[in-house]
Amino acid sequence: MAKIRFLGHSAFYIEGEGLKALIDPFLSGNPVAAAKQEEFNDINAIFLTHGHGDHMGDTIKIAQRTNAVVFTCNELAGYLSLKGIKTEGMHIGGRAAFPFGKVKLTPAWHGCPIEEEGVVRYGGVACGFVIEVEGKKIYHSGDTGLTMEMTLLEDELIDVALLPIGGYYTMDIQDAARAVKMIKPRIAIPMHYNTFPRIEADPKEFAELVGEMFTAVKILEPGEEYQF
Ligand code: NI
Ligand code: MN
């Protein structure tokens, strides 16, 4: 059985056969973090959607300590490899097989800077991920607006979709519900809300809007886990 634990904001821990991974591990400085970065000592992968601090978070520290491979877009991977980190620098639309399952990068309408010591540099493009483990598919959209590309995900037969609902920087509740209609995952889990005042949103409203569609909405509090 695969499991997914919400760590707050857009951060998740996922576990399945051959995979112990973090997605967007923003834990230090995250006001709703359900774990400390020091707790993750035996992970083998980190999926990083883009370079903003609320996603990059503790990626460098955790990857350097655990030797986990960081999956991200090629340009950001190039930067991380200069820090002695193992990377898989894939790109949008690319899919590849790994011992635990396949990974595909999906488009995200968003920015992707490399921010270091007050200097901002080009970091490639933001992305999302379709991650296969134990034959199940998890889609983490990253930060994104609603995009027609999401219709392409219907054929992927997504089991669990992790979607932002907070608005301002990403889709809001209405657009996230429209994304669900396009993707038709079995389960949708909202993320990227109520971390900061600008992204306040009521996940129950999202669940109501999705309503009786193909998809069931599962609201996870930071620290809660879902098995599938
Ligand atoms: Ni962002
Ligand atoms: Mn963000």
Question: Can you offer a commentary on this structure?
Answer:
With 228 residues, this protein is α/β, with parallel strands linked by helices. The chain has five helices and 16 strands. Strands 6-5-4-3-2-1-16 form a seven-stranded mixed sheet, covered by helices on one side. It has a seven-stranded mixed sheet with strand order 7-8-11-12-13-14-15. A two-stranded antiparallel sheet has the order 9-10. Helix 4 (173-183) crosses helix 5. Helix 5 (203-210) links the parallel strand 14 and strand 15 (216-217). The radius of gyration is 16 Å and the shape is globular. The longest helix is centred in the C-terminal third of the chain and has 11 residues, at 173-183. The chain has helices at residues 53-56, 59-66, 74-81, 173-183, 203-210, and strands at 3-8, 11-16, 19-23, 45-47, 69-73, 87-90, 95-98, 101-107, 113-116, 119-122, 127-133, 136-140, 160-164, 187-191, 216-217, 225-227. The structure holds nickel (II) ion (NI) and manganese (II) ion (MN). The site of manganese (II) ion (MN) has 6 residues, from helix 1.
